């Protein structure tokens, strides 16, 4: 009995130290933490390459700039303008960066969808650049330990890296916000104000709250004078306002300030609630916990041990509080605060790690810091698998291209669900094919019988939407999408991701010899490609309760159905 107790004590004393030693060896061999950010963001990109409706405007704009250039009449936004206009300045910058690589891809005759990866990588690089500079600034202000843990915490979480390369309006503003943080921490107030002005006036007006709170803190602590603020802010504000009005008026073919119209729509008309509402504290009890994962538990610890993170955390939390007054809420609307909150969590991890050699209990606390990373990575891996099943439209078009050869005379109609869940112009691989997204066509109508193929939403092959095609079309394939999550006690892991049929590819058995597509020439206003759509997009809203279960909204904004099962 004495030996057993001795071995138990030895296990408690040695194992945490050994684990810490292995972890330290891993960090040393990793050398530069920068590559972890790059590698993990690439994993997110390649696992989920397709995009959704919220990303549609920017992605289609980048495509049109790259492929149609000055032929504005061929641009997608003139046919599908969305609810409110968005700026072209972000897509222009991304296009300039991606253009040489896309040109090489075209010369080498790679498939067109390779350009989608190149464009997303270019956007990801735009965000990673200031993020890595911010990491270096953290190293200079809070120490190398906090800087390294900041990278580890960030790569372990799902949301920030998942959104990092996605052409959302919020992501377009993110590089400027990260640069603003970098210059703020370095007390370079002129550049901070310039980046803030560009982010607010061009991309996201609500950033005036977050960056304004930071600016207010600098004014109250007298690190910056009001006169200097006005002297810098006014000319930069006028410059960026003129730039967005000049460029976007050209692309939209009318005089406008895109972000001004968005603010009018959201704030003055208060129309954001039309796209769904959430409780006032939703960001605090749902969005932030899902974005930070288990790192959230270390946030107050970091604030306790490192008082220097208070000026970073407080503006972020007050911004979220102020933004909570808008009824429509999505996690991506507050994605800018995650780096600031992660700095506090990283400070906690750094302190726990530095004290690891002071005794066995300190070593155990250091293991908590390591263990929380493992927990985050498990959650991230799970959510990445779930997210991959949420792009049936992209998968459907990819499958159709595999089934039909390049030389085939294919005309395909893409319904709303398919268009919103992964199909973009980058997926239009063959110039001789016709890809159509005309809306409001009645199932089985003469117009739809003009197409050789249809991508149609349906719950099963016997679904109501497919009945009008029973005699005229054959089902050649179906694509499954995410349905729900089921807990099963007899399997490992005990959680299973369930899918269900959601899109069907139909082939016309009686294709007209001279099909009439004159109906596709009219313009089609569509309420998509807009930031204000609910976080649960149309596809996800169509998940149904087939039995008793608990609906949980996960960190992709997807309503998940968790069912208990003994199967």
Automatic annotation (TrEMBL):
This enzyme's EC code(s): 2.4.1.-
Keyword Transmembrane: yes
Residue ranges crossing the lipid bilayer per the database entry: 88-108, 114-132, 168-185, 191-217, 229-252, 280-302, 309-326, 332-349, 361-386
InterPro entries, sorted: GPI_mannosylTrfase (IPR005599)
Pathway annotation: Protein modification; protein glycosylation
Superkingdom of source: Eukaryota
The entry's keywords: Endoplasmic reticulum, Glycosyltransferase, Membrane, Transferase, Transmembrane, Transmembrane helix
Membrane topology: Multi-pass membrane protein
Major site of localization recorded for this protein: endoplasmic reticulum
Catalytic activity line of the entry: an alpha-D-Man-(1->2)-alpha-D-Man-(1->2)-alpha-D-Man-(1->3)-[alpha-D-Man-(1->2)-alpha-D-Man-(1->3)-alpha-D-Man-(1->6)]-beta-D-Man-(1->4)-beta-D-GlcNAc-(1->4)-alpha-D-GlcNAc-diphospho-di-trans,poly-cis-dolichol + a di-trans,poly-cis-dolichyl beta-D-mannosyl phosphate = an alpha-D-Man-(1->2)-alpha-D-Man-(1->2)-alpha-D-Man-(1->3)-[alpha-D-Man-(1->2)-alpha-D-Man-(1->3)-[alpha-D-Man-(1->6)]-alpha-D-Man-(1->6)]-beta-D-Man-(1->4)-beta-D-GlcNAc-(1->4)-alpha-D-GlcNAc-diphospho-di-trans,poly-cis-dolichol + a di-trans,poly-cis-dolichyl phosphate + H(+)
Annotated localization: Endoplasmic reticulum membrane
Family note: Belongs to the glycosyltransferase 22 family.
Functional note: Mannosyltransferase that operates in the biosynthetic pathway of dolichol-linked oligosaccharides, the glycan precursors employed in protein asparagine (N)-glycosylation. The assembly of dolichol-linked oligosaccharides begins on the cytosolic side of the endoplasmic reticulum membrane and finishes in its lumen. The sequential addition of sugars to dolichol pyrophosphate produces dolichol-linked oligosaccharides containing fourteen sugars, including two GlcNAcs, nine mannoses and three glucoses.
Protein's name according to its UniProt entry: Mannosyltransferase
């Amino acid at each position: 009995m004495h030996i057993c107790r001795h071995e138990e004590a030895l296990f408690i004393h040695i194992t945490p130290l050994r684990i810490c030693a292995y972890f330290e060896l891993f960090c040393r061999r990793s050398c530069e933490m920068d590559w972890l950010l790059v590698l993990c963001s690439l994993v997110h990109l390649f696992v989920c390459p397709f995009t959704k409706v919220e990303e549609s405007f920017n992605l289609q704009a980048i495509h049109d700039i790259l492929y149609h250039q000055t032929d504005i009449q061929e641009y997608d936004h003139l046919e599908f303008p969305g609810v409110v206009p968005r700026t072209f300045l972000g897509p222009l910058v991304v296009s300039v960066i991606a253009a040489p690589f896309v040109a090489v891809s075209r010369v080498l005759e790679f498939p067109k969808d390779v350009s989608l990866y190149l464009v997303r990588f270019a956007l990801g690089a735009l965000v990673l650049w200031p993020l890595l500079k911010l990491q270096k600034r953290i190293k200079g202000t809070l120490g190398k330990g906090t800087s390294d843990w900041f990278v580890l915490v960030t790569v372990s979480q799902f949301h920030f890296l998942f959104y990092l390369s996605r052409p959302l309006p919020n992501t377009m503003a993110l590089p400027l916000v990260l640069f603003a943080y970098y210059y703020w921490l370095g007390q370079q107030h002129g550049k901070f104000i310039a980046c803030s002005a560009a982010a607010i006036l061009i991309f996201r007006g609500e950033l005036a709250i977050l960056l304004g709170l930071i600016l207010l803190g600098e004014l109250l602590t007298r690190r910056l004078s009001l006169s200097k603020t006005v002297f810098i802010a006014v000319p930069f504000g006028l410059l960026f306002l003129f730039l967005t009005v000049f460029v976007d008026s050209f692309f939209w073919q009318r005089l406008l300030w895109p972000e001004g119209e968005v603010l009018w729509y959201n704030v003055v008309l208060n129309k954001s609630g039309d796209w769904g509402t959430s409780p006032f504290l939703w960001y605090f009890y749902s969005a932030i916990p899902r974005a930070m994962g288990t790192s959230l538990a270390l946030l107050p610890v970091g604030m306790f041990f490192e008082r220097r993170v208070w000026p970073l955390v407080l503006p972020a939390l007050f911004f979220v509080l102020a933004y909570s007054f808008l009824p429509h809420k999505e996690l991506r609307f507050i994605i800018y605060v995650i780096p600031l909150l992660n700095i506090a969590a990283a400070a906690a991890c750094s302190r726990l790690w530095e004290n690891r050699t002071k005794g066995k209990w300190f070593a155990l606390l250091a293991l908590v810091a390591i263990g929380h990373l493992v927990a985050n990575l498990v959650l991230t891996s799970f959510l990445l698998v779930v997210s991959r099943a949420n792009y049936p439209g992209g998968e459907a078009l990819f499958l159709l291209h595999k089934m039909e050869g390049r030389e085939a005379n294919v005309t395909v109609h893409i319904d709303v669900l398919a268009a919103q869940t992964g199909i973009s112009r980058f997926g239009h691989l063959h110039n001789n094919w016709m890809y159509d997204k005309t809306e409001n066509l009645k199932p089985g109508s003469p117009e739809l019988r003009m197409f050789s193929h249809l991508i149609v939403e349906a719950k099963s092959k016997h679904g109501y939407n497919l009945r009008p095609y029973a005699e005229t079309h054959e089902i050649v394939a179906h694509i499954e999408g995410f349905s729900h999550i089921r807990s099963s006690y007899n399997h490992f892991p005990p959680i299973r991701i369930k899918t269900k049929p959601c899109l069907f590819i139909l082939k016309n058995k009686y294709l007209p010899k001279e099909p009439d597509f004159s109906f596709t020439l009219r313009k089609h206003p569509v309420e998509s490609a807009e930031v204000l759509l609910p976080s649960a997009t149309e596809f996800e809203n169509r998940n149904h309760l087939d039995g008793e279960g608990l609906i949980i909204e996960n960190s992709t904004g997807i309503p998940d159905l968790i069912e208990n099962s003994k199967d």
